[in-house]
Design brief:
The protein is of the alpha+beta class. It is built from 12 helices and 19 strands. The chain has 2 domains: 111 residues, 2-Layer Sandwich (Uridine Diphospho-n-acetylenolpyruvylglucosamine Reductase, domain 3), CATH 3.30.465.10; 198 residues, Alpha-Beta Plaits. Bound molecules: flavin-adenine dinucleotide.
Length: 418
């Protein structure tokens, strides 16, 4: 058995996990023993969350030492993938086999299990979050046994098992829906007035398969349009064409960004904003994000425009995306189409905290739900109250994990046990 390592931090470096032991098993059997023999244990993915959702006061376990498995079932349009695999590796293999995922996040560096556990999303009026592609999930239960839940086989509980914040067990394998590979061409429109976007949300976000608006909330933004070459383009053309490739963060060199200027290419080299081999985003940063019901988008735009002068000095950049509704109990897009308002903040908590709170004060009345993997000033009870199925999730967690082996302070605060 490999010796456990000591303390570790998340990708951004703003969080040091409390766990004194980080296990990195080399085989499934070793993982099952580690889980069985631990009193309290949490899985850690690639550590790209900005809060303590992954933390443990006892054991942490990483799955990136296990053999990587990516098995495509062409007949059933499914891929079975080992949970610690990063999208960066999964998408290359899928594309090689002629398949694609419908949606990807802004970066491929993140693990499949960690992303699906938090409802990680990309953009697109027709695209649900990455977790919604999950058809079945296999996890190690508290006694070290493997259990599996499927969309068809377990319709009553399956929707509670995917976006599960690591609280139901250590996920070892996921089965994801795939579709035939497709091509995407990415174009950027710059100098787009925010009022134009706010007044024409459906036109702007319907203009391509996947659309992102980047802005500092002061007056203008750039709109990144990712067109599927096998589908008609929307007619919206605000602002003007970018003259060269850009980085989403203004002023940063464009190299880490995926190819732009309308050059068609494979889906996995265009849907993310960032290339797998280079450092994504700003690097030194904090992030927060709120999902607002789509029909309240114009109100959210107006509220953020009002405090743009406060927001801009604390920002690297902000991003607006759309997410289609799903049925996963803890998905921030549960039961409703959303517009997601994301903020990549400067790495300065003292500067950022009051501004983040000001943003949330304005968007919370719009029934917003925060991203599970990012920072929020909201009280856990208030967050849980925004999920119709929170009590069902708490019950499921009690049934699958009666001793609370997979819980931590983050999940205890959200779903307290009586
Ligand atoms: C630069 C950057 C860009 C980002 N872009 C996006 C974006 O475009 N869209 C978006 O929605 N989010 C985005 N995020 C947030 C990120 O996708 C989420 O925080 C996601 O959870 C990261 O996955 P991870 O593997 O790093 O998870 P971790 O942070 O390691 O863990 C997150 C949760 O998953 C659980 N978990 C991990 N592995 C397992 C497992 N095997 N079994 C059970 N539970 C497990 C953990 O216990 C924890 O609760 C971004 C983050 C960064 C740093």
């Amino acid at each position: 058995m490999s010796a456990p390592h000591t303390q570790t931090t998340n990708w951004a470096g703003n969080v040091t996990y409390a766990s004194p032991r980080v296990h990195r098993p080399r085989s499934l059997d070793e993982l099952r023993r580690v889980v069985r023999d631990s009193a309290r244990i949490r899985a850690l993915g690639s550590g790209h969350s900005f809060n303590l959702v992954a933390d443990s006061d006892a054991d942490l376990v990483r799955l990136d030492g296990l053999p990587e498995r990516i098995e495509v079932d062409a007949e059933n349009a499914t891929v079975a993938v080992s949970a610690g695999t990063r999208y960066a590796e999964l998408v290359v293999e899928l594309h090689r086999r002629g398949f694609a995922l419908a949606n990807l996040a802004s970066l491929p560096h993140i693990s499949v299990a960690g992303s699906c556990a938090t409802g990680t999303h990309g953009s697109g009026d027709g695209q649900r979050c990455l977790s919604a592609a999950v058809r079945a999930v296999e996890l190690v239960a508290p006694d070290g046994e493997l259990v599996r839940f499927g969309r068809e086989a377990d319709p009553e509980v399956f929707p509670g098992t995917v976006v599960a914040l690591g609280a139901l067990g250590v996920v070892t394998r996921l089965w994801l829906d795939v579709e035939p590979a497709f091509s995407v061409a990415q174009r950027v429109r710059v100098g787009v007035p925010l009022d134009e976007v706010a007044g024409h949300v459906d036109d702007v976000f319907g203009a391509a398969y996947s659309v992102s608006l980047f802005t500092d909330w002061r007056g203008e933004g750039s709109v990144w349009l990712k067109h599927r070459t096998d589908r008609p383009e929307g007619s919206w053309r605000g602002g003007r064409s970018a003259e060269g490739p850009l980085h989403p963060v203004p002023g940063m060199p464009p190299e880490p960004s995926t190819e732009q200027m309308g050059v068609p290419g494979p889906w996995h080299e265009r849907l993310p904003h960032f290339r797998p081999e280079l450092e994504p985003s700003a690097g030194k940063e904090l992030q927060s994000e709120l999902y607002v019901p789509r029909e309240r988008a114009a109100e959210a735009f107006a509220a953020l425009r009002e405090i743009g002068h406060l927001v801009a000095p604390a920002l690297h950049v902000a991003e607006v995306r759309t997410v289609r509704a799903d049925d996963l109990w803890l998905s921030p897009a549960y039961g409703r189409d959303c517009v997601a308002f994301h903020f990549t903040w400067l790495p300065d908590p003292e500067l950022v905290s009051p501004v983040l709170a000001a943003v949330e004060e304005r968007l919370m009345p719009l029934e917003a739900r925060p991203h599970w993997g990012k920072l929020t000033s909201m009280a856990p009870a208030d967050i849980a109250a925004r999920y119709e199925r929170a009590a069902d999730f708490a019950r499921l967690s009690g049934e699958l994990d009666p001793s609370g082996k997979f819980r931590n302070a983050f999940t205890d605060a959200l779903f307290p046990r009586g």
